[in-house]
């Protein structure tokens, strides 16, 4: 596709020289104009680049530039002028002119090189835009957050509401439920997707470094500050910042974060310059922030500032068959990466997955599935190939939707295991009759493991 260049030059001879020189590149399509009025009349053609003579008969170059920007804000403009005053060039560049060239013998070559640089920058911007669009598709809700449970559908509904505005979003849920995945999906499906998504784990940054990390610092602000550094809020300007584990932020810094959010500006540590911010804030925590406020660990005014639109992620144990859908998804991804072919789950393996409560949630399921693939034979994961990796020592008592009878069986099983299948010792420890335990074993409610 031709690269279209408009040349606005009232001197026909000089305009012809510039047009001829640029036309040596067969990819360039050159159109010349001798007045500002003629150029503006054809601006609907959306040229890729415009060169403007500073002294036109019907309008000054800076005036034409301003009018062009009103109609077509993104087009790069080069001003060519006989004036060599630095102040003129500086003022034009401040207005947003892409380049300023002085008319002399070298102008043709300088223009040639300037057009090449601008064209390369435009190509890079288009490539970045394309990559961002691909990210948006990658982070579409249904592709990013796998599952069909009613609990998850409610999450999708809240996420759809979040992307329509720039309201702050607070994501809560147990560890491993996918809070950062939700934050990325909101960013890459919103109007902010063309700018940065910056994630900060508040719990992973030492207290003495968090202020500099978030807000940046000036050279010499403290020992070791050998140069100016932009903070995470500056990096995210125009986009979204994700503050994970927000409840871990020290009280002394909560007031500074509140000021930044209220004023929508940041001052680097050791500096005075106020940097305006346009940032979408997304926070996450596995703690109950309202409880933290009551305990005095979290400022109430900051709590109300950041809550915005609350999105609560359900634990995996409350998502029913999503466990199997996710397991298949993880298995397909792992098999593809390792060129293993199609992976299947046996009926017993599926039942084992559904019965487990997954204290580590989606993250744990992924690890369990990948280990199961490594251990299995003939690309079929059987029950024995599934090893639960939870590091919790008292998983038995994690709340689940079970009947009292089911909890009773779990408790008896737990004590039988501790007592090496000694029914008498177990009955004594639980203060129940041993005949009750024998009857439950006989009826298949309790399975006695072989030593």
Number of helices: 19
What's the gyration radius in Å?
Answer: 32 Å
For CATH, the homologous superfamily of the largest domain is named as: P-loop containing nucleotide triphosphate hydrolases
Low-confidence stretches: 393-401
Overall pLDDT level: 87
Overall geometric form: elongated
Distance between the termini: 75 Å
Percent of sequence in beta strands: 5-15%
Strand order of the largest sheet: 2-1-3-4-5
Helix content: 40-55%
CATH class of the largest domain: Alpha Beta
Q: Please give the largest β-sheet.
A: 5 strands, parallel
**Name of the CATH architecture of the largest domain:** 3-Layer(aba) Sandwich
In CATH, the topology of the largest domain is named Rossmann fold
Structural domain count: 4
Number of strands: 14
The helix-and-strand class reads: alpha/beta
Summarize this, please?
InterPro entries: AAA+_ATPase, AAA_lid_NorR, CheY-like_superfamily, P-loop_NTPase, Sig_transdc_resp-reg_receiver, Sigma_54_int, Sigma_54_int_dom_ATP-bd_2, Sigma_54_int_dom_CS. Pfam families: AAA_lid_14 (PF25601), Response_reg (PF00072), Sigma54_activat (PF00158). The radius of gyration is 32 Å and the shape is elongated.
Task: Give an account of the 3D structure.
- The chain has 451 residues and is α/β, with parallel strands linked by helices.
- It folds into four domains: 3-130, 3-Layer(aba) Sandwich (Rossmann fold), CATH 3.40.50.2300; 141-312, Rossmann fold; 317-385, Helicase, Ruva Protein, domain 3 (Orthogonal Bundle), CATH 1.10.8.60; 402-442.
- 47% of the residues lie in helices and 13% in strands.
- The protein has a five-stranded parallel β-sheet, with helices on both faces. Strands 7-8-11-6-12 form a five-stranded parallel β-sheet.
- β4, α4 (86-95) and β5 form a beta-alpha-beta unit.
- α7 packs across α8.
- The protein is elongated, with a radius of gyration of 32 Å.
- The model is unreliable at 393-401 (pLDDT under 50).
């Amino acid at each position: 596709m031709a690269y279209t260049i408009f040349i606005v030059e009232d001197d026909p001879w000089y305009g012809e020289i510039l047009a001829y020189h640029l036309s040596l590149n067969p990819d360039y399509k050159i159109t010349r104009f001798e007045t500002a009025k003629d150029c503006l009349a054809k601006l609907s053609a959306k040229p890729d680049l415009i060169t403007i003579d500073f002294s036109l008969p019907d309008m000054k170059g800076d005036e034409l530039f301003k009018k062009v920007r009103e109609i077509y804000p993104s087009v790069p403009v080069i001003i060519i002028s006989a004036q060599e005053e630095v102040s003129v060039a500086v003022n034009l560049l401040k207005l947003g002119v892409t380049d300023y060239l002085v008319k002399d013998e070298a102008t043709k070559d300088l223009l040639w090189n300037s057009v090449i640089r601008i064209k390369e920058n435009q190509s890079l911007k288009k490539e970045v835009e394309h990559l961002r669009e691909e990210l948006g598709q990658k982070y579409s809700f249904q592709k990013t957050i796998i599952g069909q449970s009613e609990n998850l559908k409610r999450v999708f509904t809240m996420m759809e509401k979040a992307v329509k505005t720039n309201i702050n979003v607070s994501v809560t849920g147990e560890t491993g439920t996918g809070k950062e995945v939700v934050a990325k999906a909101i960013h890459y499906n919103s109007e902010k997707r063309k700018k940065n998504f910056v994630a900060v784990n508040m719990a992973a940054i030492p207290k003495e470094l968090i202020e500099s990390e978030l807000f940046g610092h000036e050279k010499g602000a403290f020992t070791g500050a050998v140069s100016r550094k932009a903070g995470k809020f500056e990096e995210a300007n125009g986009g979204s910042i994700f503050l994970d584990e927000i409840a871990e932020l020290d009280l002394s810094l909560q007031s500074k974060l509140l000021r930044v959010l209220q004023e929508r500006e940041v001052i680097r540590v050791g500096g005075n310059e106020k940097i305006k911010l346009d940032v979408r804030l997304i926070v996450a925590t596995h703690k109950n922030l309202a409880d933290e406020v009551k305990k005095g660990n979290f400022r109430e005014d900051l709590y109300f500032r950041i809550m915005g639109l609350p999105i609560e992620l359900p634990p995996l144990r409350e998502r029913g068959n999503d466990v199997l859908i996710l397991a298949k998804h993880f298995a397909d991804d792992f098999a593809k990466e390792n060129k293993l072919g199609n992976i299947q789950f046996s009926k017993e393996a599926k039942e084992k997955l559904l019965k487990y409560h997954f204290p580590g949630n989606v993250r744990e399921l992924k690890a369990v599935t990948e280990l199961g693939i490594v251990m299995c034979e003939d690309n079929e994961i059987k029950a024995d190939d599934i090893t639960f990796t939870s590091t919790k020592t008292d998983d038995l008592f994690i709340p689940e939707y079970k009947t009292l009878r089911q909890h009773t069986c779990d408790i008896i099983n737990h004590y039988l295991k501790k007592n090496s299948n000694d029914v008498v010792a177990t009955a004594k420890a639980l203060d129940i009759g041993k005949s009750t335990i024998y009857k439950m074993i006989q009826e298949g409610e309790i399975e006695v493991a072989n030593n």
